[in-house]
Amino acid sequence: MTPHDWYVENRTAFVVRTLELREERLFAEHLPRCDECRREVARLERDLGALPMAAMPVAPRPGLVHHLADAVLNRRVWWRRAAPALAAAAVLMLAIGFGLRERAHQSVLATTLAKRERELSALRDTLSIWRESQRVVQRDIAMGNHKGGLLIFDDPTTHRWNVVMHGLPAAPTDSVYQFWFITRSGMVRSVELRCEANRPAFATLDMPKTPGPVMGAALTIEPAVSHSPEPRGLELAHVQF
Amino acid sequence: MSPPRDPKPSPPPSPPTGPSTPLTVAGQSSLRDRLIARDERALVELIDTATPWLLGLVQGMLQDQDEAEEVVLETFRIAWDRVATLGDQHEELMPWLLRVARNRAIDRLRRRARWRRKTARAEALGAIGPATAPFREPDESAHPGWHVHESVHAALRALPEEQQKVVRLAYFGGLTHSEIAKELAIPMGTVKTRLRLAFDKLRVALAPIGDWVQ
What we know:
The complex is a heterodimer. By secondary structure, chain A is of the alpha+beta class. Chain A is 41% helix and 27% strand. In chain A, the strands form two sheets. In chain A, strands 1-2-3-6 form a four-stranded antiparallel beta sheet, with helices on one face. The N and C termini of chain A lie far apart (127 Å). Chain B is mainly α. Chain B contains eight helices and no strands. The longest helix of chain B is centred in the middle third of the chain and has 32 residues, at 93-124. The termini of chain B are far apart. The chains are: A alpha+beta, B mainly alpha. Chains A and B meet through helix 2, helix 4 and helix 5 of A and helix 2, helix 3, helix 4, helix 5 and helix 6 of B.
């Protein structure tokens, strides 16, 4: 008995599927390699092709034929048919949503960038003035725990003074930081400098319209209601040129 | 949700008559060509004609109407998808459909058998309750039918009783050699011999039924 005899003996069993699972796999693996077995199996299938007709036909339940045809042809309920379109629409909506969000985000970024550019431009302007300034005066000021100062530099182009008060707290209640020019004819009241939450106060000042040159400047704390032409409050800084 | 069932079972379909029926060799050939050409009406025609036979075979094997309908649907899907390759092999449509359906049903029975073995083991360990109803031998001999059906029945009846029994269990019950031996409490060698003898006779008796329903 040759190994092939087993396949010959079991051709019918393979066709009618009475082989055990392991044997069936063995036979199925053999089949593509053996023309004779393939031919015989095809012949057996043909010869026994009518055997399933021994089963009594069963009338399908009402509607089954149409259901089967619909299912095979994939004619499904509308939402299943529309599922790909709905999915595509959902993807499109998401894409649009992301696009709009991106656009809004870009708009915010553009606004922030423009603001930063304006600030940078202002700083450059300031630096350009400082670089050309012929006179810069700095005075340190201590107020309780705060250590700040008064910075004054001239702008030779516009012939104005730039004043920066920094590092100081907001002025006490009912008081203001008052800047003064010192001239030959006496103290000349200038502007109030407002410090908020320790942010520096900036001011660009024209020279006072008084005869004679300006000799210096002073910073005092004055009562808010006071409009005295002479300083009466606490002097924080005094600068002489 | 499945559509409502008709409480009264419909009578079996009348045998198709005339040369235009898709169950004739000429009819099948024409139908196959139309199916290859993706003619949807041809598919509906095929489903209309073949469903009673497929259902009869598969429902008898599985003893479950819903599962049988699933197998029939799978079979028609395969037919619709692969009918072009069938055209190359010059195989007739109906035997091919019946074989596909039977193979799918056997696959389900074998899965079911594996599941039964698992549940039996689990039951033995007291893990779960009693199993579902045991598999029943299909009763396919009660009704008269078409010419092919009658011819096949005649061929089956011509077999000795013990061979009929193994053929029913093997072919219409989807059992393997060892399962039949266990079912009938006979040696496996006897099962193989009876099956070999039975199928040799059936092959001779059925081979001339080439024209199907004429």
